[in-house]
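Risk mitigation, structural track. In case the binding assays with CU-O-CU linkage fail to produce interpretable data, a predicted complex structure has been prepared as a fallback.
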Amino acid sequence: MSRFIAARPASFAAGLLLTCLMACGGGMTPKPFLMPTPLTDINPDPNIVEVQLVAGPSTIQYLPGSRAQVWAYRDGAVAGSVGTVPGPMLLAKQGDRVIVHLRNELPEPTTIHWHGLRLPASQDGSAAVQTAIQPGGVFTYNFTVLDAGTFWFHPHLSGDVQIEKGLYAPIVVTGSEAIDVAADRYLVLDDVKLRADGQMEDQTNPLDIMMGRQGNVVVVNGQKGATLFVATGTRERWRLLNAANGRYFNLSLPGHSFLVIGWDGGLLPRPYSTYKLLIAPGERYEVLVTFDHPQLELLSLQTLYYDRGHDIPDPGPQDLFKVAYDSTGPAPTPPMALPSSLRTLSRLDATGTPVRIFALEEHENPTGTLFSINGEEFPKVSPLAAKQGDLEVWEIQGNPEMDHPFHLHGNFFQVLSVDGVPPVNFGLKDTVNVPKGSKLRFAVRHETLGMWMYHCHILEHAERGMMGMLMIE
Ligand code: C2O
Ligand code: CU
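Fallback model:
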């Protein structure tokens, strides 16, 4: 617990207690809303972020009365630190050099992939570019962060097991944008599959493999049922990341809209507003929420049913955390208007560009469902080749049975269309949901030399074949 910071300063405590009488009923203390703490920067140079990260076993209390055995990251620069889920975050500013000394205290080999960061292939952490870091081993990652936005890091070896067990953390790279908000919050969404004794279920059943493992407890920043206190009239920035193996989050905050200002590759040129926000595994969204409905006293951020295929029944809305208005403080100054354009971004002109086809396939097999792309099952794949600087259009052909979130390493792409229809907005993506039976096209300009992975971000699918390699030369 000590490795988290509470989201609201202690001076709010008085108002918090009052609001609590309504929000938590019967005067029970609300569970405070926690956020990941940044890793300690041990380098005095203001343009270098140098951290010590340790991956190892830890315990987390998900259910009252018992601590689940997990694998987690901790801050090696803090004496006595314990591993948390999510792990301590990597916080840097655009243009910084980042140096991460990783020590592996796990009983098995691991690596780290910096999901969404553009970096040299040698630092990308996939099995294609790095020998695994053995138990007791160390490795230093060293790269420059080129883009502002919300990213995340996680192992790229047995991802279905290691990420599920708790090895993941957000990365926030701040830019120069002037967006006036009362709070900048990091919300890491996940679910855990717990047995009655509070330990994590380590057996996978055929449904886990087919859909990606879905937990029975949904958590935000590793906790369930917290209360977020917000001040009436303020606007907050929420950076959302779906770190689940297989769960889709379809977010709704009754009575409130989300103004989407950014996604995987940073800010969008123009924001758009929505009441429901679908976040597939691996994706990130940045939204602004304005708290102008104080009459709605008992509110929860919920995830709603989304039909992602295979006739999975609707469990009804599930609460992620409570949102309670706190009107006891001084009236806030209204937030300043947003700039009319958040970012300039030119659209890739893909007319007449060669199209590569990627068909996402599932097959039933006596050992469970197997997955492939264009008939090839990872690791038995022949790498594709492209030239540095080439512009290509990729057409991802969705499987008729279910949705798959497609992720490309090393570079961003721009979605052109889904079944011929342009997307709601254009901006840079590295992970995109390919709805069942649809054809999704994106444009990408290959930038960085080396071997890059592309795969489904449902981790059980990636680890059972739905992954390929691209060599940029
Ligand atoms: Cu977050 Cu290759 O993935
Ligand atoms: Cu998939």
